[in-house]
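stuck on whats below:

***
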Amino acid sequence: MGAPNKKGLDYFPKMVDFYDDDKIFDLMDEYGPLGVVVYEVILTIVYAQGYYLEISEDKLSRMVIRRIGNKWVRNQKAVVQVIHRCAELGLFDERLLGQGVITSEGIQRRYYEIAVKRMKRQLYSDKYWLLKKNEDGEPLLNAPKNQLSSEENGINSEETPLSSPGSPMKIKENKKRIYTPFPNPELEKLFQQFLTVQERSGRKIYPEQQQALRRQLENYGENDQERIYIVNRAIAGGWKNFWPAPRAIPRKNNFNNFHQREYDFDELEKQLLNS
């Protein structure tokens, strides 16, 4: 008798431009390399089981720490923070995460391409299946024009799905993406100018990315005058992100298990302007 049909994968692809994806950039910027390592470790755990994983956050975080080593991450709550941030960025499905399930459209797309199309394995069921199907019951795998380069490669935004040519664009509202403007009108006006510059440069800033930028700016500035300086500097330099003002130390955040990164900001600013 042959071996039973295995649901899990032995491997999964990683794009060479993985770190150019804005979602991975934001994850790296907020939590450092360890944040991306946590995400990748979770992918290996999920793919070993199939296209989804039913597990509690407590158990999953302990599994991640066991694989990384508690020498590098001793605070279990820190791993849970990264898991939730991945869901906010769209790397995991946020609704299913609330039900104790780890999966996403990107995870399912890769699983289908490898396990079903290449290895002729069966999906067993449509449980937690997120991909839409065509008339033949096959998942729609075609990537839109504005595809991403990370594990979510080929996934369009769930908040703003593209419609077919000639038809109006439909926008799915999500009340969770509402942000609070800065109390300082001058700071809010500059922040909106920063977003305008980004869009004119061809970089779409999604609501969850705006939230991350607002949190980042609050941490980098001790007061509104420093934050205004930081935004002005980012606009003038055409930067995609904010950097602390020289000699400014970011305020202590809830992710206390990691050491804050230290930079020579004067030298960094010269390099960015020269580039």
Q: What stands out?
A: The beta strands are 53-54, 101-102. Residues 143-151, 153-177 have pLDDT under 50 and may be disordered. The longest strand covers residues 53-54. The two ends are 62 Å apart (CA to CA).
